[in-house]
Amino acid sequence: MKKIYTTLVALMASLSMQAQGWPANYNGVMLQGFYWDSYQASKWSNLEAQADDLAPYFNLVWIPQSANCGSGNSMGYNDLYWFSNYNSSFGNEAQLRSMIKTFKSKGIGTIADVVINHRGNLTSWTDFPVEKYKGVTYKMNSTDICSDDDKGKTLAWANKQTPKVSLSSNKDTGDGWDGMRDLDHNSSNVQTVVKAYLDMLLNDFGYAGFRYDMVKGYAGKFTGIYNTATKPGFSVGEYWDGNVATVKTWINATKVNGVPTSAAFDFPIRYAVRDLIDNNWGSMAKSGLISDATYRQYAVTFVENHDTEYRSSDKQQDPIRKDTLAANAYILASCGTPCVFYKHWQAYPTDIKKMINARHIAGITNTSNTTFNVSVGSQCNVLKTEGSNGTLYAVMGANANNYKAPSGFTEILRGYHYRYLLSNSSNVAWIDLPSGHYDDVQKARLTAVSNKQGAQLVYTTDGTEPTANNRKAASGTEINIPMGTTTLKVGLLTGSTVSAVATRTYDISKPEAFTPYNINVYVNIDQVGWKSLNFWAWENPSGKNLTTTGKWPGDAVTATKTIAGKKWYYKTYSIAKRNDMVSLVLNAGKDKPQTIDINYLDKDTYIEITTEKDGKGYYIVKDVTDQISTGVNVLTVDKQKASTIWYDLQGRRYNQRPALPGVYINGGKKIMIR
User: Fold this and answer.
1) Burial of 674 (0-12, 13-18, 19+ CB in 10 A)
2) pLDDT tens digits, one per residue of 128-154
3) CA torsion 76→77→78→84, rounded to 10°?
4) What phi and psi values does residue 282 have, to the nearest 5 degrees?
């Protein structure tokens, strides 16, 4: 009997020591803290400065690959150095470590973008950096490169050298990636270097886990090997595929002792949401990882990321960009671990905060039970998720407001094409306005979600705990939040007992008057040689079409200016409200070439259409605004007589001159701080 007990203890200890892929019953939400070319917005110092605002809502922040990639700006996917050089396009090593440490102190884990499918070289096709870390030298060799790398081009080059250069005898175990050397993960040297690199990220830099890039490029078993060796708290792979069966197969391939060692991004649910929006929410949702109880723990859901936003669009306007808020409402009310895209957080912080608060008050985790397609009607789709504190209905679509709430549920939230309804059995007090800084007097709606007879609301605005003797409010009452700092506490009063106290803290300032302004979008077509140019544009967040006819291919643009020796086509758009933005697609006419979507513009922007195309054949563009004189005032600190109130282009307010470089609004004018 003692022997059996000892064996069981040893087995349990062994299982506890292996990588678990992603924790069960996890209630956290992740933020992707970057997008393509977000070199300014995603600087380590800029992200660190947002820690207090992020902490109440995000448990994890995924950041770009953080090591040096050679000369020029890089998003980190052309990785070069792993150990010795952390001066990246987002900051230096000291700034990186400071950000990770600050995040950790606020309860935020930092997720590293791990690029180990391929690696760059220094001067030839096969010379990798020689790096020392803690007295150990790490070097990859030519024999660590797959024999079929770059469709055989690397081998052809190697055979021409004198003496000949040897590659691995092993072929790639996944999809090839041209342009850099595909690593042979069967190589014991590759595995040794990768394990040391991952261990350094976790135990030296302080990362909480990994986002593995392009895991289609090598067999899933290697993720299992690396995670078992390093034991990250969180691991998620980018297996970019809309087929849910193939994503499940990859998760299964990472298993060690029958347990997955990694989660995966739920690309199938991303495409399911896209199709729902394309059908005006009036169709049945397709399945994703979160549709399967076995895999929902290992599903990281999202509606947009840097790749889908930049490269992927099979419509003139990807449907998700027309209904971004409802798309986020869908994943934030579902099981799985939601990952919010940085641009969405920048554009809609208040709505997303409300959704995350609702997720938390219902007690939804990644393993909660979500029922999809509860109701499907004309422009309306409904799901429900059973959390530990209550059941949350999410209603999406243009007809969401017409959906009749089931008996025993109370509406707690509504926005553009979405509503949230919470079960009365939750017995909570709900405040719709999230904590934070706001301009001008705000209104907070108080809602009693209760199945108890005669339940009321009581509240205080001075931070003291509410009692039965404090001010009472009927469910649905809106109260004013005045200028200054207010700590609002609202409790559910049943008889003489106050319970389920909700707390919000607000910092309300007098707003500086916003003056509507115009922006010009300049486009250069020299590289592609188009004979004509059309702008197909829409407004964010409303989705309003900004073209004259409202029909594809949009407005033909003939106005031009010569700037910096180049011919630029341009069109003017109005920014009528502080949070207005413009998105557009450029094209050469109906049934002719077009670009990818260009999103969220709120200042003069210069776009070059390149000859590079995405997987759908759409032309990729390059924002060269920083290389062109845009006519924005350049601030000279000792001469500029500035107002004390500043706003960035996402509408965030600063009560003193911002420390970070960028374009800001001050005194009704755009000012560039360098």
Assistant:
1) exposed
2) 999 999 999 999 999 999 999 999 999
3) 40
4) -100, 20
